[in-house]
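Worked example

This section walks through a single chain of length 131. The input is the sequence exactly as stored; nothing has been trimmed or padded.
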Amino acid sequence: MKLRYEYEIAAGHRILDYSGKCRFLHGHNYFFVVEIETRELDEVGFVIDFNEVKSILLELDHKTLLRKDDPLADLLESEGQPVVRMEGNPSAENIALWVGERLRERMGDRISSMRITVWENRRGSVEYRYP
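Given that input, the structure is written out below as tokens.
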């Protein structure tokens, strides 16, 4: 069985140790396409509840996504701004990995395959595939 869920969020970010313009704080309307296949449905009859997928994506919505050692994170948090600290730079690639890791934590071995596509704008996307 295959689930497909599409959702859009807004988030700010910047890329550290990068010489291009994305080193400056800016934002995107990220568009996600999440596809998950399982061999068996859960006890309720779902691949996964759509609301669970949405809740993972909402963890990023209207937040500033920063690398965990970004000095801006402490400043923003001290001003009450919501920040998500990521292991690596909050590139579209790492955002896709972040979402995939959370889905794998929730679903475990039930996932037979998963694809997460993150559109940063109309011209560019990345795709994470598992396994």
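What to look for: The chain has one domain: 26-130.
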